[in-house]
Amino acid sequence: MTNKHNIILQPSGRRGQTDAGTSIRTAARDLGVEIESICAENGTCGKCIILIEEGRFEKYNIDSKRENVSPVTPQERKYFESRPHLLKSKGWEIGQVRLSCQCRIRGDVLVNVPEESRGNKQIVRKSANERPVEVKPAIRKYLVSMTPPNLERPIADWERLAKGLETSMSLVRGGEENLPRWYELSIDYQCLRTLSKTMRDARWNVTVSVWNDKEVIQVQPGLHENSYGAAVDIGSTTIALYLCNLRTGEILAAESEMNPQIVYGEDVMSRIQYTIEHKDGTEKLHKAVIETLNKLLRQAVKTANKNLYANANKYEEDERPTYIKIEDILEMVLVGNSTMHHLLLNLNPKDLGLAPFVPAIHESVDVKARELGLQISPSGNIHVLPTIASFVGADTSAVILAEEPHKQDDNLLLIDVGTNAELVLGNRKRLVCTSTPTGPALEGAHVEYGMRAAPGAIERVHIDEKTLEPKYKIIGEENWNEGKAKGICGSAIIDAVAEIFRAEVVDSRGKFKKNLSTKRVREGESGWEYVIAWAEETSIGRDIPITQQDVRQIQLAKAALFTAARTLLKRMNLESPDKIILAGGFGSYIDKEKAMLIGLIPDCELENVYAVGNAAGDGARIALLNIEKRNEIDAVTRKVERFELPTDPEFQNQFMLATSFPHMSEPFEHIAHLIPHRKADPMAKNFIK
Amino acid sequence: MTNKHNIILQPSGRRGQTDAGTSIRTAARDLGVEIESICAENGTCGKCIILIEEGRFEKYNIDSKRENVSPVTPQERKYFESRPHLLKSKGWEIGQVRLSCQCRIRGDVLVNVPEESRGNKQIVRKSANERPVEVKPAIRKYLVSMTPPNLERPIADWERLAKGLETSMSLVRGGEENLPRWYELSIDYQCLRTLSKTMRDARWNVTVSVWNDKEVIQVQPGLHENSYGAAVDIGSTTIALYLCNLRTGEILAAESEMNPQIVYGEDVMSRIQYTIEHKDGTEKLHKAVIETLNKLLRQAVKTANKNLYANANKYEEDERPTYIKIEDILEMVLVGNSTMHHLLLNLNPKDLGLAPFVPAIHESVDVKARELGLQISPSGNIHVLPTIASFVGADTSAVILAEEPHKQDDNLLLIDVGTNAELVLGNRKRLVCTSTPTGPALEGAHVEYGMRAAPGAIERVHIDEKTLEPKYKIIGEENWNEGKAKGICGSAIIDAVAEIFRAEVVDSRGKFKKNLSTKRVREGESGWEYVIAWAEETSIGRDIPITQQDVRQIQLAKAALFTAARTLLKRMNLESPDKIILAGGFGSYIDKEKAMLIGLIPDCELENVYAVGNAAGDGARIALLNIEKRNEIDAVTRKVERFELPTDPEFQNQFMLATSFPHMSEPFEHIAHLIPHRKADPMAKNFIK
User: Fold this and answer.
1) Is there a common fold for B138-221 and B228-384?
2) Residue A151 is nearest to which of B190, B356, B387, comparing CB atoms?
3) Which of A302, A621, A672, B198 is the most buried (most CB within 10 A)?
4) If you measure CA to CA, which chain A residue comes closest to B391?
């Protein structure tokens, strides 16, 4: 027997030599393989399970056997013997399976590190674009076992805990340097209040949750491995909350509710107006959102526990998970536009709505849950992502975090469309942003027969360019031209406008042509219109047309969006973006070819136009699960350049030009085949590239 | 004219050469003379006034004249012309008096820096022992003038303020390095809530209060130079509060109230018992002290404003001080024994009273005022000094801070006597501490005819050793043996016991001698006693004796105190301390010779025994006025060695031996002349030195 032995770690294949007597966990760490542990290597938490593989491994030229490691310790025996089902279900036997903190090397071994023991390697897949997220939460848990105080060492409870914690932190995290010393750690005041009782009730054996390596925010009796957090996207219309396991990154529940502030105003400007006109307006809108967040938190906990309960019979008794209480949620990350951000934090949003449109704060905010009345742990942290400008809020920060334009060589154009559209353009070298009001038309509101995307709504429209007859698809029906129509939803309005332009029912200025040989184009009550569905095809007994007014609304919206995009491209000296990312629900429903056809988005290869769904919610979840991402987005947003469109002297001019379909100075080569009749507009020379 | 000029600064006499064009404030700083400024050198705050002295100064070989500095600027002219009374009262004229931030050097000058302009050099004299305190408060104020936002630069309010503040901090504080960068400064959440309104109301000209160089806790419109803080000593019986000007260190009001917790128990043990027996006990006692603190704060503000008002006619209109509001108080520093400390912080004190006697926390606590319900600024900080042990609390930390044994070569013995006595012994090398219950006798309580130090109380007693007749002095009377006695206060009890021992009325074991030729020694209702005042000399119509029981009480108290002191001396291998410091009201009233005579304090040169009054209150005030002192006491208390007497195996034995007058094995050479009859006690050999 020599003093150095070979160790091979599977499945990574890492190998190296290590001193006799070294624990397998330490040896693995030295070879760059992290094995979990939260009990300070006391052999009690069972997070560091490994398997000693037996046999001759020719590839590595070693004989691995159980005798090449130290014998099973009493702690290991106790741990495994109290979990017979674990061994049975996995087909393991004691001696083969070991706790790597207890098991020391005495000869050559090949060690298998099962998935569940691998540290710091969890991956979360995003619903939309499957981007992996490394789980590095702000909350870390440590099991701390202390010697009870006695007359010889009557050191205070906090100092006793902090000293034990210091030991535990450095052991669990592999003796990293620069860990806080115990008198640099602090404890949240409300957490301190119950500390003495908890430590005694727990017989000096507690799980400590440390926030951001610097503040103790929860102390629980005994061993608890999971901690919980919630990511929230506060939209003007909908609030979506994701309850996550901060250890695994798993989403335990996703809940959403209407934003209760809607009763005070449908869009942000009318809510700001409400706070200006009512003395307690800010307070009222703030309370409304806090109440809804508490409701969503309770719902999410209920859902998560229901799932745990439903799966409970999958677990053996010794393995059964503990149910979640709302106070076990230790952190929330929230995003929303600047108005939602201000109302969440009970900050008066007045100056967001008045020139020169200034938020109270850009940088991210950390505040205790109890300060806001959120019913998670009172010591829990509420992190709100940074705002970029008055109309480019924390939701855009979250979209940037999710889509990472700051890490790409390609120039991305991010567009988050709602009543207001936020646009970010750029790559790792430079990012510029702006925002523009697009009005409610793109969401199907304020359109004559507009309605939500619900059964009965026309969602797709196609017009035959010869006969000018339409086909349409109704939500809830399997085939085109089936069922009774009730109205038109957002995506169909874009379809319809694009189709009447493509079929030359309207000219490039959006004006209806009056000498067409079809009854569908007619002068209706409110001006010229094109009838998509005759009264007898509807459930409302009236013709459903798309009117001149509707076309104008879409023209204004698309002009605003297009001019904003153009302005950013111009600032970056770009002709067109390499990729276009459409965030938000809107992007997921529209037909991107049609959107390009009417000039809603700049010309780009269609395959490089992506709809990524709720990227703001994803960004919030990324920031919740990985604290390093918070510093990243703080730094990125500090450098994003803001452009306020109204201050651009060319804006009005450009905007007017951009109302035509699609803007005539643009090549739009990717949709050229759809509009062979397109001619250069004589006004195009005025459009500055 | 050369490029370098001579500058002489009076009254310090600092001199040096400086480049032409340098402002006098900068030049002074380079020579180590700090001149105040809070307006970022904008010439608006007037804190940096200096005088240019004219004439030939042979000593320095220079001709100083007004022409040797840059002409008076418009800002200076505006500042001084709006303050004619200032100039008149001081006899200054513009040109002679200058703002040193505006006035630049063009030739040799001799500059006089008046007292009020000198930075960082304020001195506070302590009431008791005149120890100077350098004023370096945690709160610093900065005047920040900002450019209003516009459409081109719509940066958020907080970032605008923080950037202005960064500039202001570095200018005001002389370009120091390592100042926080704006995104490392934070703003208290509650302060952020009103920020936008304040900045606009103030037309972008605000005074910012920064706590500990890292957190903005107050933003006020316009210029405010003063900030306020309160230092509090929470005694079991009395709460004393000092309202201070944090800029000057001045005490603006000193208020005190009975501790309202007295109704729940007279001493700390009975209050702890109350919290054990009543579920809401801790909460109740906590609320009681918070209410009283709020009352004291309101009283102190009222007193301070009354004084300001009374002196208002001393000020000219342009100089009149602004009145103080309770929300202008930005910080409090509190001290108290460990039980008072716990109840202040709403921490359950149970384990302070049960073996092994463990506090919840040793280290100092910083918590927002709003968390405790204290009615100073909600963003204000509450700093509670560290505790050392269960019975050596934050009050002892404060006494250490005031008396600084850790900075002395001499060994100090600090004794803070109440119902419990805390003792600290040592010097810069090592400090040890302990505590001992002394019972209420030393404070005059539980003594047969004991009473508070109020008119009618006997305060001094002398007994003629021949005739055994007493003389006594009554509070409120000018001469001895005048007036009608009502009872005996604490100091007189020690006097009386010392005198009956010195006059050999009792033996060294404290037993009354029964064969004395005086009617004053007699067997009374509750045993043997010595009558100090006959019934006809009193206002209560009864004889006022000192009883065997009273003597026993004093014996027990002094034995406890003496044994504690002896134990510490033994641990430090010392025969006797170099100095004895008696802290607390008790120390101020007793006759130190008599105290030594009965062995209450160890033998020491009488001139090295000091009574320092409320040293705990002084320590709290020092920590309030100088933030560096907080780190100092945190560090010192971490190193103080604690000894719990009951764990010392010799304690009971020593304690019994020490009940005799004075302990017979002790030399007590400094009082030997008073007791020529003293003989060595045969038991002395058992007393371990």
Assistant:
1) no
2) B356
3) A621
4) A154
φ, ψ of residue A435 to 5 degrees: the values are -145, 160
Q: Which CATH number fits domain B138-221: 3.10.20.880, 3.30.200.20, 3.40.50.11900, 1.25.40.20?
A: 3.10.20.880
Average pLDDT of the segment spanning B160-186:
75
SS3 assignment, position A288: helix
Query: CA A536, A539, A542: angle at the middle one, nearest 5?
Result: 55
Mind listing the pLDDT tens digit for each residue in A234-256? 988 889 999 999 998 999 999 98
Distances (CA, A) of A41 to A79, A86, A98: 13, 20, 13
Across the interface, whether the CB atoms of B192 and A358 are under 8 A apart is answered no
DSSP-assigned letter for residue A72: P
Confidence tier at B121 by pLDDT (50, 70, 90): very low
- Indicate whether this model's pTM tops 0.90: no
Q: What is the CATH class of A408-440+554-686?
A: alpha beta
State both tokens at B595: 């105290």
Average pLDDT of the residues of chain A = 87
Q: Do A189 and B365 touch (CB under 8 A)?
A: yes
- The residues in B 558-597 lying below 8 A from A, measured between CB atoms, are none
Compute and round to an integer the Cα radius of gyration of chain A: 30
Give the start-to-end residue ranges of the domains of chain B. Answer: 4-117, 138-221, 228-384, 397-440+554-686, 441-551
CA-closest candidate to residue B625, choices B90, B95, B126 = B126
Q: Can you give the pLDDT at residue B122? A: 39
- CATH code of the region A4-117: 3.10.20.30
Predicted confidence band at A2 (pLDDT cuts at 50, 70, 90)? low
How many interface pairs between A and B have CB atoms less than 8 angstroms apart?
128
Amino acid B205: pLDDT = 95
Contact B335, A183 (CB under 8 A): no
Query: Measured between CA atoms, how close is A584 to chain B, in angstroms?
Result: 26
Closest-CA distance of chain A to residue B358, Å: 5
Could A647 and B152 be called an inter-chain contact, meaning their C-beta atoms sit closer than 8 Å?
A: yes
What share of chain A in percent tops pLDDT 90? Answer: 51
To test the contact with chain A by mutation, choose from B160, B188, B189, B348 the residue with the greatest count of A C-beta atoms within 10 A, namely B189
Tens digit of each residue's pLDDT (9 = 90 or more) over B290-319:
999 999 999 999 999 998 888 777 666 666
State whether residue B642 sits within 8 Å of chain A by CB. yes
CA distance B355 to chain A (A): 7
Tell me which residue in B154, B157, B346 faces A389 most closely, judged by beta carbons: B154
On whether the CB atoms of residues B252 and B228 are closer than 8 A, the answer is yes
- Give the right CATH number for B397-440+554-686 from 3.30.420, 3.10.490, 3.60.21, 1.10.1740: 3.30.420
CB within 8 Å of chain B, chain A residues 158-217: 158-159, 183, 187, 189-190, 192-193, 195-197, 200
User: Superfamily for B228-384?
Assistant: Domain of unknown function (DUF4445) (3.30.420.480)
First to last CA, chain B: 76
Interface test with B, best of A152, A200, A363 (most B CBs within 10 A): A363
Interface contact flag, B348 A152, Cβ < 8 Å: no
The 10s digit of each residue's pLDDT in B393-426 is: 999 999 999 999 999 999 999 998 877 889 999 9
B279 touches chain A (CB under 8 A): no
Is residue A652's pLDDT more than 50?
yes
Half-sphere CA count of A373, side-chain side, radius 13 A: 14
Chain A's closest residue to B631, CA to CA, is A183
Which CATH code, of 1.10.760.10, 3.30.420.480, 3.40.50.720, 3.30.70.360, is assigned to A253-384?
A: 3.30.420.480
